[in-house]
Amino acid sequence: MTSVPHSARGADALARAWSVLESVPDPEIPVVSIRELGILRSVEQADDGTLEVVITPTYSGCPAMAHIAEDIAHALERAGLTPHRIKTVLAPAWTTDWITDEAREKLRAYGIAPPGGRCAGTPAGGSEQAIRFVARSAGSPACPRCGSAHTERLSQFGSTACKALYRCLDCREPFDYFKPY
User: Are 152 and 169 in contact (CB under 8 A)?
Assistant: First the structure.
């Protein structure tokens, strides 16, 4: 019988963990995963063999983080990926730059206008950079249903603090806009 080196077992566990966590949906926007939103920052194996999952909330008061941590734990346990620990880190702060292009399209198809522009220019797994605050564009977000840019903001806060509520003036449909930051 040939034993598998610890590093090979670790690499396999990391690959499996990333694959399993790819399917953990955001509890508020179930069409996108926590990885696609950039909430899932890293999965590493500690010296003691424990999987360490690092997550960052979309904003520091996000009420869904406890639910997300529970979903991560359940997914890893179902896959036999134990022991594990979940760390929530606040720095660097999450930015809408970390939302993948695929997730932006999924948001649009779901009826949420994705954020426009880039703030920090750093991917979730990339090196830390200070966030650049960008001036709000003079235009309104395009309607995710009909594509019209003829929209108006109804409320700075939509279904969650991360989103604003808009209405399309052409098709008359309300929609959430994922605020860029």
Answer: yes
